[in-house]
Amino acid sequence: MPKKGKGKRPSERSYARLTRHERQTIERMLDRGRGCREIARELGRAPSTVANEVGRHRFVTSLRARYGEPAPDAGALAAACPRLGSWPRCRDGCSHRRAFGCSRRPRVFYNARMAQRAADEELRGSGRGIDETELSVASKLDAIREGLSRGLSPEQIAATRPDLGLSASTIYRWVGAGYAEMTNLDLRRKVGYRPRRRSAPRRAGRHSARRSHDEFARLAEDDRAGAWEMDTVEGSAADSARLLTLYHRSTSFQLAIPMADGTCASVLAGLGLVRGALGAEGMRRAFRLVLTDNGSEFSDEDALAALLGEGAGETRLFYCEPRRADQKGGCERNHVELRKLLPKGRGVRLDRLTGEDAALVMSQVNSEPRGKLAWRTPAEMLLAAFGEDARALLDAFGIEMLAPSGLDLTPGCVERARAERGEAPLAD
Question: ∠ at Cα 345 (339, 348), nearest 5°?
């Protein structure tokens, strides 16, 4: 039985792509003026394989063309030089050769390195595209576009629409490829990052030593995982109103309570609403630990601790180190979800925000399926964690549990609801 490789007759050889070494052999033998059949015998290939390789991967260079541009059609080349109309159809091996051919233009040549690169690109391109019917692809692209228009991420689309049979990475790839005229601009987080501001030097905290973040870090890991993170969200420069936010670490649930201004009295009033919904015992059960920052609105630590139901000998309220927002990073990251509906810098006025608006925003944000929750929603997880106390909290603030089809994480969601109630838009 004949050995595989060089010298094997074409009829006995299974099809295989030309290798880099074979292309180098073709280039070397063309330079020596060898014929097509002689090169084919050397490679153990069919003459048509060699002829097609040289014809497919000819390149041209001239004063009016960039180096490496594919060669024109054979008819146009034959008019420039008879050698280009038949074998070898390039200037390699020409007796009048100068540089990449004779002095006639254009200069057409075969180059093994460039031919290998072109062949590899052709092979990669053969696997691109979508291996589905046109009707099936159209319906999936419509579903992706509709989900993105409601502010859903590719991960959320993949999780809430298992019928599509698409992974998040596939959705990202289709959007990046520009299918259905979608672009990366449709992916809010992918194009929405900004350079970080430089932090000023840290200052000493105003709180008691027993409420420091070091003391919080000494608590058991399970206790810290179930803590709430407290912060405020500002509106436009003309606003005095703010939002008091309370984020539960283990469930990703977040309250957003409108405040008249950024004073400590407004924070106490907002926490008073939470205590009024849960009662003194419910407050003690649900809010065992609260971590906040050193803003002036949280300066009255004794009054805040009293609302949380802090008893003698215990500490429920803790403070981050100055300018260390990362120590309550869950709350900060979840503000991004609030900003989807109440974007900063677009004229949205928190002074006009009503309790109904806040309830709608919280309903949307807490009904988002989250990957960290195995694609369950924060509202579902809060109910599982706190039972009747969670139900009382949802009912008191008008928070509804929405189906994935009811999600609309865009500013238009709030504006349409206000229009239906006959109220002015939030944005100027």
Answer: 70
